[in-house]
Amino acid sequence: MDISQGPRSVLRHPGYLNFAASRVFSSLAFQSIGIAMGWMIYDQTHSAFALGLVGLCQFLPMVVLTFVVGHAADRFDRRRIGLVCQLIEAVTALVLAVATWQQWLTPAGILIAVTVLGAVVAFERPTMAALLPNIVPASMLQKAVATSTSMMQTALIIGPSLGGLLYGLDPVAPFAVSALLFAVASFNVISIRMQWVPGKREKVTLASVFAGVSFIRSRPVMLGTISLDLFAVLLGGATALLPIFARDILHAGPWGLGLLRAAPAIGALAMSVVLARRPLESNVGRKMLAAVAVFGLATIVFALSTNIALSVAALLVVGASDTVSVVVRSSLVQLLTPDEMRGRVSAVNSLFIGTSNQLGEFESGMMAAVLGPVATGIVGGLGTIIVVLLWMRLFPDLTKVKTLQG
Q1: Cβ contacts of residue 386 below 8 Å, gap of 6+?
Q2: Structural contact between residues 45 and 55, judged by C-beta atoms closer than 8 angstroms
Q3: What is the full DSSP assignment across 241-265?
Q4: Band of the pLDDT at 261, cuts 50, 70, 90?
């Protein structure tokens, strides 16, 4: 294959390497600090409820701030928003490091820090997503998304391990290292070279704030793509039950749980590398729908498996198929959205993703309490496949999407 068409050509594009480095270092830091805060609050409280509050404190700011975030990302330089977010994250991590060192940190303090980080991430993620099309041309966007996804999946694999290792060495270490990583991320985001054109300073009204929702509703392809992912993750969230499968069904112990947790990310990393080198060039709508159906089928296989090797293989497929959907959805959302709307549309998209992940875990947990984990996985997988079939009828334009070249 001609290497000039591969991911290295994307990395050589002015500004892209700084963009990718900023996202990766920020993700590494966030994952590392998240593991440390979760461990610390459970160590102090021995309460599963307290752990649940950590997730809630991350989720609520995103719901509350989504529409404010989108409007800001469409009015101001997105690099500067990223810079401010990552500097606030660095300061928060540094405060946590000092508080841990001086033994001041209480559960309430941890929850306050989690809320601050959740609010900042609510700004950072959609803003950075909306920034990418300002850096690379539309013809390179799919490769850019796939390359960025592979890097982010690597960070998702390394980050929690890094946080656990550092916490084992010294409880201060994950917070101090995360502060440094956030600072490096901020340096990279402000180093992105591009010409920023100020967005149209339209008057802030209720209609302009919710314009992202109206825009998505008026584009059947975009609405179908985003809602398909929402329902697939909601129904196919059996991976939230991994501790139950590892202990009670596979009898694999903690090492097995670690392997099961890593498998989807490894599958996602492998697929994102493939897509960076060999982008989808035809019938991308049908391929996305097929990938979501495979996601559902792999979920069923995982639920039925009583063999650790088969379970890991099924989760590898879950991660890989999900990545096809992620790359197609992310590329379509950016390509179909004019630059002056990208912040608001990316914010709504980010809310959908966060909602599906959080509610998917909740739905799986509640259903498992009634039906058991195996039946929950089977129902979720079948539900995902049924959604694909319904969406083919409800959003026929999805099957007509041929390319992501822009």
Answers
A1: none
A2: no
A3: GHHHIIIIIS--HHHHHHHHHHHHH
A4: confident
Residue of 149, 366, 326 whose CA lies nearest to 233: 326
Closest to 130 (Cα-Cα) out of 190, 188, 75: 75
Measured CA to CA, the distance from residue 29 to residue 110 in angstroms comes to 16
DSSP 8-state code for residue 199 = P
Please name which of 27, 51, 29, 53 lies closest in space to residue 40, comparing C-alpha atoms: 51
| Conformational region of residue 281, where left means phi above 0, alpha means psi within -120 to 50, and beta covers everything else | alpha
Find all residues with CB under 8 Å of 260, minimum gap 6, and list them.
239, 242, 245, 246, 250, 252, 311, 312, 315
User: pLDDT, tens digit, for every residue of 78-131?
Assistant: 899 999 999 999 999 999 999 999 989 899 999 999 999 989 988 888 888 888
Residue entry with tokens 């068409």: 5
DSSP codes, 182-198: HHHHHHHHHT------P
Sequence-distant (≥ 6) Cβ neighbours of residue 237 within 8 angstroms? 357, 360, 361, 363, 364, 380
Q: Does 172 score more than 90 pLDDT?
A: yes
CA distances from 211 to 121, 128, 341, 346 (A): 21, 19, 8, 12
Residues near 102 by Cβ (< 8 Å), separated by ≥ 6?
A: none
The rounded Cα 359 to chain-centroid distance in angstroms is 14
Q: Which two tokens stand for residue 174?
A: 């994950």
Task: Name the nearest CA neighbour of 37 among 124, 116, 152, 122.
Answer: 116
- Residue 398 contacts residue 289 (beta carbons within 8 Å): yes
pLDDT band at 184 (very low <50, low <70, confident <90, very high): very high
